[in-house]
Each structure stands twice: as C-alpha cells, then as structure tokens.
Amino acid sequence: MLKGIDPLLTPELLKTLAEMGHGDAVAVVDANFTAASLGHGKPVLRLPGAGLARACEAVLSVFPLDLPGQPVSFMAVSEQPEGYRSALQRELVALCASAGAAAPGQCEAVERFAFYEQVRQAYAIVQTGELQPYANFLFRKGVLAGTKPRATGEAAW
Description:
With about 160 residues, the chain is an alpha/beta fold. Helices cover about 25% and strands about 15% of the residues. The protein has a 6-stranded mixed beta sheet with strand order 2-5-1-6-3-4. Helix 3 packs parallel to helix 4. The longest helix is centred in the middle third of the chain and has 12 residues, at about 85-100. The two termini are about 25 Å apart.
C-alpha cells in the first residue's frame, strides 16, 4: 500500500497513467462499452467492481487535466435533445468541477460514433462495472508545473 493513493488505483493502472504524456487521453467507460475492439493494441484495464463515478474519482485524484480547453468528453445520450445529460453524467461533470479539474463548460458531450473515434485515439481504456448506459468519459492529460527556478538560475528540483 502507498499513502495518499486511492486504493482503487491498481499498480497496472497507476503505471499506465504515469506513462501517459501531455495530450494523451484515457477513456473511463461502462461495462457495456466495446472496450476490447476499440482498445485493440492499447492497454485495456478493468475495474469490474467499481461504478463510473468512483473510478473517475480515483483517476482524477492523480491525473492532471489538459487546461485550458476541453479536457473532458463524454458520450452524448442518443435520441435526446441537445444539452441533455443523464443524472450520472451530471454527477461526473460536477465531480470534475469540485475536484478543480475542469469547469462544466470544459466537459463536452460528443455524439456516440464520434466518441468512439476519440477512444480509438486514446492511450488507454479503463472499463468499469458501471451498468448505466452512456456512462463513458474521456480525459486528456495535462502537465504538472514544476517549481520556479531559483534566483541563482539553477533548477529547484
């Protein structure tokens, strides 16, 4: 065990998130998502006992988002008016805001097939045990800012 690390983050998941670079994306998806076919050739990690909200909370606890911009995408619910969000999608957008990760306006609903294309470009997929349909989010990785150089010109690290 490590101090300060969410216990839901498996060693394999932590390794994958750490390997990702600026602009790489991770998809956190529901149990019904086509992770194996869309994830062919990339890491597909499974958290079968976790719901989407819990898994995203764990990932966002260590994952900086690519700000400013649109660092969060989620699959729009088909056959609903534009702007519709399920209760779970609203919960996740609120989680992003409360974690200081992204404001609601930085979370973008994407049509189902366009979302699949974004996932094809993602670095990794995390498949949860979530049974709620359209419970699929994609997070783009940002950077961690280092400390400012010291007055003498040498790096602080």
